[in-house]
């Protein structure tokens, strides 16, 4: 018991002169020092938390249950396990290899990647990439919507939960939200990998997956309209229009007997709430009232 107390005080830097001398007389003193020195030079990227946990678990499960007082060596092993688990937790929490960029409601943001490629994120979008070895692995993970202007180089890949896009050097837009996956090619050529489909898009072409159907069609815009503060839709469920509206205006809709699966074609601007509301309600013969940051939609009488 005295030994455990001394070790605890030593770890916390609380030993006085007499206690320090007593600590040095312990049989396991040198083992404690080795553990401390190893911890100082610990390199998080080389730590395998799963392997260390399995090894520790096997050691505990296979060791005989003894009622005798634990030996100093067992105590050393326990301290080593504490160091291993502690550094494992630190590695998982604070050594994420990805750089993450996110936008909030009604916010857009443009970033420059290590190869000078640029990405503009629409509202409530998250982008992740690894800076390490970027030139040999130009890969980003996207959740939301973003416009890419890719510098010429090795293959540039965009991964989403619905499909992937691979290019060499071009300009394109990727949208991946709530059952809607759309890729617009503005310059060069992009390859869309979606389910079992592999399709090459040239400039001014669109690939869209919505309501279980794939559509490829010609595009009339020179760049995404949302970059000009305007959201544009062509034959998409009204639910998608409302979700995008909430992302751009930081409001919440309350629906009263509204069919959100009906298709909508049209647009709304991002800088005038009433004008935008009229744009998405009048074509469907709906009315709205505003109440404490909430917009109530209902059918016209």
Question: Secondary-structure blueprint of this entry?
Answer:
Blueprint: H1 2-11, H2 17-24, H3 29-40, H4 49-62, H5 72-94, E1 99-102, E2 109-112, E3 118-121, E4 126-129, E5 138-149, E6 156-159, E7 164-167, E8 171-177, E9 180-187, E10 189-194, E11 197-202, E12 205-210, E13 213-218, E14 230-237, H6 238-249, E15 252-256, E16 263-269, H7 273-281, E17 286-291, E18 294-299
Parallel strand pairs: 5-6, 15-18
Antiparallel strand pairs: 1-4, 2-3, 3-5, 4-5, 5-8, 6-7, 7-10, 8-9, 9-12, 10-11, 12-13, 14-16, 17-18
Explain what this protein looks like in three dimensions.
The chain has 301 residues and is an alpha+beta fold. The protein has seven helices and 18 strands. Strands 1, 2, 3, 4, 5, 6, 7, 8, 9, 10, 11, 12 and 13 form a 13-stranded mixed sheet that branches. Strands 15-18-17 form a three-stranded mixed sheet, covered by helices on one side. The chain is elongated. The chain starts with a helix and ends with a strand. Mean pLDDT is 83; it is low at 37-47.
